[in-house]
TrEMBL record, chain A:
<feature type="domain" description="ABC transmembrane type-1">
    <location>
        <begin position="18"/>
        <end position="206"/>
    </location>
</feature>
<dbReference type="GO" id="GO:0022857">
    <property type="term" value="F:transmembrane transporter activity"/>
</dbReference>
<feature type="transmembrane region" description="Helical">
    <location>
        <begin position="63"/>
        <end position="88"/>
    </location>
</feature>
<protein>
    <submittedName>
        <fullName>Glutamine ABC transporter permease</fullName>
    </submittedName>
</protein>
<feature type="transmembrane region" description="Helical">
    <location>
        <begin position="20"/>
        <end position="42"/>
    </location>
</feature>
<dbReference type="InterPro" id="IPR000515">
    <property type="entry name" value="MetI-like"/>
</dbReference>
<feature type="transmembrane region" description="Helical">
    <location>
        <begin position="187"/>
        <end position="205"/>
    </location>
</feature>
<dbReference type="Pfam" id="PF00528">
    <property type="entry name" value="BPD_transp_1"/>
</dbReference>
<dbReference type="InterPro" id="IPR043429">
    <property type="entry name" value="ArtM/GltK/GlnP/TcyL/YhdX-like"/>
</dbReference>
<keyword id="KW-1133">Transmembrane helix</keyword>
<dbReference type="InterPro" id="IPR035906">
    <property type="entry name" value="MetI-like_sf"/>
</dbReference>
<comment type="similarity">
    <text>Belongs to the binding-protein-dependent transport system permease family.</text>
</comment>
<dbReference type="GO" id="GO:0006865">
    <property type="term" value="P:amino acid transport"/>
</dbReference>
<keyword id="KW-0472">Membrane</keyword>
<keyword id="KW-0812">Transmembrane</keyword>
<dbReference type="GO" id="GO:0043190">
    <property type="term" value="C:ATP-binding cassette (ABC) transporter complex"/>
</dbReference>
<keyword id="KW-0813">Transport</keyword>
Length: 217, 247
């Protein structure tokens, strides 16, 4: 039977975990969005080496497991003398991994903006960057909201990877509670509830945003 | 400095794959001239005018605008484009911006005009194209003819020396063609240098200083409109005109 008393007995652990999961998610969300936008623009510049760089980035981080990406920062960087905490390396790994997906979603969105839009902008003397910033990206954003919201939901769930590298997140504390109480099902169920507390409002908010963007056409 | 010859094509060639889209183009356009380019579809008309602001590059030959070599690597293309307005078949207004912001974007971002001044200029040109009341509308709220007039105002707001029109009325419902052509006629009368790709023969006849007839990538005939329409010299031009008349 599910016993909610556990949540209160270990409320300090669970709240600390929830807070860290929330922080990691918010940082990675903002970070992966910015990084993903930059990579998407790189993938589409007329400058070939930059395009190649963007492509290499996406293919590399999208095609290895998230755990491995996090290990690069948690275990790989110390070999170079850079030591990061579990929370920091987990969050960076999450950011980098998600940004590869975001970049692809944004690229698809950019390609869905009719070519005539950038032709009009470029012919009026705007630079490539100005054209992207003022004309193409604002239109692409509307197209990419649904796939990106999906990525953000995945991001919150994927943040459980922090538990593996002692990132003090929800999953980490659920394990602690489990090992102290041996109430495995209970301990994990509480974590699941708290994840839902984050993801359901997020999914609701993105649905609202989609509706609103659809209205302004 | 103003030169009397604004645009010069010297032996310009271009291919799209194996398709020879521009063949040995020689053309001089003077300041204040209105040149109408006509010809069957696929004859290279659009490519020709798109080369003028380097929306297309040329492979060989020389193309200069205001004395500047368009395809020279050292040419600052964005600087050159400030002086060349372009109007497209499908208007290409920015759908996420109000009409006024469509018009002020380039003056503010490219020419560094203060926003307040850019707004005044935009309103002036909206007045000129006859729809000042639409400043705060979004493009999707306008008819095709209104959208194209906004596109013309957008081009004019940069105060260009040259305006390029790439089939500006081809995507319009017939009842809206007149309002766009009227704006273009006014511009022509005011001395704007205009190169217009169009199928509107009435416009060509009335407004053009010169008609350029293209077929298969080459300029086949070039003449004053009256002489061209009443007495074309080349067989292909005769054929083209006779087909138009029979529609």
């Amino acid at each position: 039977m599910i016993d909610f008393a556990l949540l209160f007995d270990y409320s300090e652990e669970y709240m600390e975990g929830l807070r860290n999961t929330l922080y990691a998610s918010l940082i990675a969300l903002a970070g992966s969005f910015m990084l993903g936008t930059i990579v998407a623009v790189l993938r589409m510049t007329p400058v070939r080496p930059l395009r190649w760089l963007g492509r290499a980035y996406v293919e590399f981080f999208r095609n290895i497991p998230l755990l491995l990406v996090v290990y690069i920062f948690f275990l790989g960087l110390p070999a170079l003398g850079i030591i990061l905490s579990g929370f920091v390396s987990g969050t960076i790994g999450l950011t980098v991994y998600t940004s590869a997906y975001i970049a692809e979603a944004i690229r698809a969105g950019i390609m869905a903006v009719p070519a005539g839009q950038s032709e009009a902008a470029r012919s009026s003397g705007l630079t490539y960057i100005q054209t992207m910033r003022h004309v193409v990206l604002p239109q692409a954003i509307k197209i990419v909201v649904p796939p990106i919201s999906n990525q953000f939901l995945n991001l919150v769930k994927n943040s459980s990877i922090l538990g593996v590298v002692s990132g003090f997140d929800l999953m980490y504390y659920a394990d602690i509670v489990n090992s102290e109480t041996y109430q495995t099902v209970n301990a994990l169920f509480m974590a699941a509830l708290l994840y839902l507390l984050l993801t359901i409002p997020l999914s609701y908010a993105t649905r609202l945003l989609e509706k609103r963007l659809a209205r302004t056409g | 400095m103003r030169l009397s010859v604004m645009i010069t094509f010297r032996q310009v060639n271009k291919h799209f794959g194996s398709n020879h889209v521009l063949r040995d183009i020689r053309l001089h356009i003077e300041q204040g001239e209105v040149v109408v380019v006509i010809g069957p579809s696929g004859s290279g008309k659009s490519t020709l005018i798109r080369c003028i602001n380097r929306m297309e590059t040329v492979e060989s030959g020389e193309l200069s605008v205001n004395g500047v070599n368009v395809n020279d690597r050292r040419t600052d293309i964005n600087k050159l484009r400030r002086n060349i307005g372009m109007v497209f078949q499908h208007f290409n207004l920015y759908p996420h911006m109000k009409v006024i912001d469509n018009i002020t974007l380039a003056p503010i971002r490219v020419n560094g005009v203060p926003p307040k001044e850019a707004r005044e200029t935009a309103l002036f040109y909206l007045e000129k194209v006859g729809i000042p009341e639409k400043a705060d509308a979004y493009p999707s709220q306008l008819s095709g003819g209104q959208q194209q007039r906004v596109a013309i105002a957008r081009g004019l707001a940069m105060k260009p020396d040259i305006m390029l029109f790439d089939e500006p009325t081809s995507a319009l419902d017939p009842e809206m063609i007149g309002e766009v052509l009227d704006v273009m006629k006014t511009l022509a009368r005011e001395g704007m240098t205009m190169i217009v790709v169009t199928h509107e023969m009435g416009f060509a006849r009335e407004v053009a200083d010169r008609v350029v007839f293209m077929d298969q990538g080459a300029i086949v005939e070039e003449n004053e409109p009256e002489a061209f329409f009443s007495n074309p010299r080349e067989e292909r031009a005769k054929l083209f005109l006779s087909r138009l008349l029979h529609h």
